[in-house]
Amino acid sequence: MVVAVEKLITSDILKPARYLGNELLAVHKPWDTAAIRWVLTYPEVYEVGASNLGHIILYNVLNAQPRQLCDRAYLPGKDLAAKLRETNTPLFAVESKRSLTEFDILGFSLSYELGATNILEMLDLAGIPLTWRERQGSSTSLPEAALCYRGAEEQESRESTDTQSSFPLIFAGGQTATSNPEPYADFFDFIALGDGEELLPEIGLVLEEGKQAGLSREHLLLDLAQIPGVYVPQFYDMAEDGSVHPNRPDVPKRILRRVATPIPAYSIGLVPYVETVHDRLTIEIRRGCTRGCRFCQPGMLTRPARDVEPEKVVEAIEQGMRATGYNEFSLLSLSCSDYLSLPAVGMEIKNRLKNENISLTLPSQRVDRFDENIANILGGTRQGGLTFAPEAGTQRMRDIVNKGLTNEELLRGVKTAWEQGWDKIKLYFMIGLPGETDADVVGIAETVSWLQRECRGKGRKPLNFNLTISNFTPKPHTPFQWHSVSTTEFKRKQNLLRQEFRRIKAVKVNFTDVRISAMEDFVGRGDRNLSKVVRLAWELGAGMDSWYENLDRAFGAWGSAIAQADLDWKYRQVENGEWNLFHAEASKGIEVEENSPLSTPHSLDIPLPWDHIDTGIDKKWLQEDLQRALEAAIVPDCSFEGCSHCGVCGTDFGHNVVIESPAIPKFAGEFVPNTTKAQRLRVWFGKQGNMALMSHLDLIRLFDRVVRRAGLPIAFTGGFHPMPRISLATALALGATSSGEIADFELTVPVEVDTFQEKLAREMPTDIPIYNVEQIDLKASAATQLLESAEYLITVAALAETTPIQWQNWIDTIKAKEELWYEQITKSGKSQLINLRDRLFELELVENYNCVAESMSSVIRYLGSYRQDGLLLRPEQILFMLETVAGVEFQLLHIHRNRLILGV
Q1: SS3 for 100?
Q2: Is the per-residue pLDDT at 658 higher than 70?
């Protein structure tokens, strides 16, 4: 049964278009023909989830499978969450609008240690028990919210002689789930480890067979546990030392991480109508990193490195830009600069799309590989920001962490950027790394000052730096997983740096809160005992958003949860630097922090809560690499030099795939905006149905993308940020519909009016119909300057018992008056009286009907002033007139703009 979302998703909800599920390239597969129905549930707000590349790829992969349907759900905003609870409505999937309990399987992305509280919030909103134990034993106590959405036939198909739950299977994937699933083991039926492109379809096939055979939940999970990459926590128990072992003989002792080859074509999809965090096309060019930075968990968990063929990248970008209408694309990798074909691919795309005002962005890059070739593909009309991550301020520390970056390479990269026109660069550094001394901390400030001195020139502003100084947080499956630093030491080092940077100008420094770092460490390296902490933290109101809204309150909630779980002693160990291996190394000539806890020789052999997860990297190799760190020894990048013998390469995980770069195409020149105005067209269009919930800014962005997809020769403005010459006459209130909106388009080449209308309408959503297109004189005034009046149909309800005769009398009274004074507050805050009657040209009662008991609503048509000099008559002011003459309170139910009338 479909949830009645039209009563929930209204204009009073913040960004209601988040929840419509009507994005361009969304896949709407028939519900009844699907054997297995998935929901990819992203535990963050829509703007984050809908632009996440992994989310898009897996959504496309699953919907490409026969007999499989994949819908989506996101963490609702607080306003919608409150509405759901007030109305006893379960959380729904955005496309089908069905309750999450109707689906067979829900998959959550867990990519951050503190993100699990959002998952619990979504499960609670969906009416789904939070733990696998509760779900397994709830076959006879299914909540009403779930019962009323699950059909009898589907319930019958799930029945079994064994214990059978009526709830979907709940699983998690993502980097955090793969590295150490134990703190979250109580909440999930299974965990998907590693890459999902091949794993999830395999899971779908097993589910389909199990559903047809009527398997019990336990038997179904046992079948899933045989798939490499599937970890079923209920089939494993935690020992007293925190290690995890099977509790039955028919499951593997260690669970393999899955590895898949990236396919760029699956990255094309889901073009939201609201602005998202990454509002661009993103194409993955390389998966995995073999640089071997000893603090970096993604670099260890994604080996081997796999390049995507340059031809496939170029093809995906060109097709993706045409299909989506984006004006920006991004190439994604843990280390884009290690993709040898980056300059060639970037230049090829830049040349092909040079006339379309397209820009390229890259994530943080290797500064030692940044050269003029990369600068050329990033530069242009809209030069984006530039981010490098030196990580440490001294050569010794960069060697300890195996950064593979010298001072000379750092200077060369930064200076190249400055010479190519960048005046501001973002740098990432880290404090609290193993073996770090105060000299290394101060070295961060000295390095920044040195870079500024080296990048000075006549007529140029000093080079500005935006620095992020994060606190080292040890991660599972890295050589530094055995090390931590006390929060007191972090605070001391932060204060040390603050003092140093006071003397340096043109530098902005941001520090990570030490409390967040400690909590990430506590949860990230925890065992199964932390599941109760996560649940208590959620019950006390600790969601991810709370860290940004009120950090003290969020930290307090987590602290209370830890205390209630009787684990505050363990958290104090983390705060005090539980594992610090470097005190004993002082005799080897490495200066270390004072009062660091002593390590014992056997401490590296203590079982860890994540030892049963087989990432491919040998634990012994991690120990050896830690020893190399003590000696500040470098391990070369095995993608380009000799094998480091980490243990990954082989039949289970594959090998590094490095593709040599093709020749870099000759630069065809920067985009030069075509400002030619050869034709001007005026378009009349509507805004109906769900599109009424799209904001004005989102509508402007939509027109830009539609014109790109339609291939229409739009003219651009000049200047540093050329914009397409598309001008909407005026904005429409959020939630209002219309059949009379106007937009002006200026083209560089004349196009037949019918052809233009056909191409535009073909790319528009169906709820934005194109009614008419006319050619106007190039020198004619813009529609926004010609606005004179607007005609509305407004639906108004009286909050008292009324009759049709009363309504007509009120309308006649307003029309008979010459003055109706209204107090208006100007933008400057001043009060002024205006005569609304002067702005009202026509008023009539169109229709009466009863909407609720003892209440009547009416549809009123009015024609009023709508000039851009401020002489407007708004629908809300019609209510004021009615209340003035009737002495009754009214409610505005709906606004529809019939037409905009232009002057001559």
Answers
A1: helix
A2: yes
250-260 as b/e, with b when 16 or more CB fall inside 10 Å?
ebbeebbbbbb
612 neighbors 245 (Cβ within 8 angstroms): yes
Whether the per-residue pLDDT at 77 is higher than 70: the answer is yes
Judge contact between 396 and 440, C-beta under 8 A.
yes
* Mean pLDDT, the chain, whole residue set: 91
With cut-offs at 50, 70 and 90, classify the pLDDT of residue 165. Answer: low
> Which whole number is the average pLDDT over 159-171?
68
Closest CA to 767 of 273, 49, 29: 273
Q: Between 804-816 and 875-886, two packed helices, what is the crossing angle to 10 degrees?
A: 100
H/E segment holding residue 106: strand 105-109
Sign of CA dihedral 206, 209, 214, 215: negative
pLDDT tens for 753-770 read 999 999 999 999 999 999
862 pLDDT above the threshold of 70: yes
Gap between the Cα atoms of 59 and 74, Å rounded: 13
Whether pLDDT at 176 is above 50: yes
Q: What token pair was written down for 287? A: 């998966």
Q: Which of these, 126, 19, 28, lies nearest to 69 by C-alpha position?
A: 28
CA distance 498 to 65: 55
pLDDT at 382: 59
The pLDDT, as a whole number, for residue 379 is 62
CA distance 75 to 83: 13
Cα dihedral 677, 678, 680, 685 sign: negative
Token pair of 782 as six digits: 């813009």
Are 115 and 176 in contact by the 8 Å Cβ rule? The answer is yes
Cis peptide before 462 (omega within 30 of 0): no
* Per-residue pLDDT at 164: 52
pLDDT for 141: 30
Intra-chain end-to-end CA distance of the chain, in Å: 53
Q: State the DSSP code for 432.
A: S
Contact 332, 267 (CB under 8 A): no
Measured in degrees and rounded to the nearest 5, phi and psi for residue 537 equal: -60, -40
Tokens (6 digits) for 603: 């401490």
What Cα–Cα distance (Å) separates residue 868 from each residue in 181, 536, 596, 779, 827?
A: 58, 55, 69, 20, 15
Burial letters for 675-708: b for 16+ Cβ neighbours within 10 Å, e otherwise?
Answer: eeeebbbbbbbbbbebbbbbbeebbbbbbbbbbb
Q: What distance in Å separates the CA atoms of residue 368 and residue 410, rounded to the nearest whole number?
A: 6
Of 479, 432, 426, 433, the closest CA to residue 448 belongs to: 426
- Greatest Cα pair distance, the chain, in angstroms, is 98
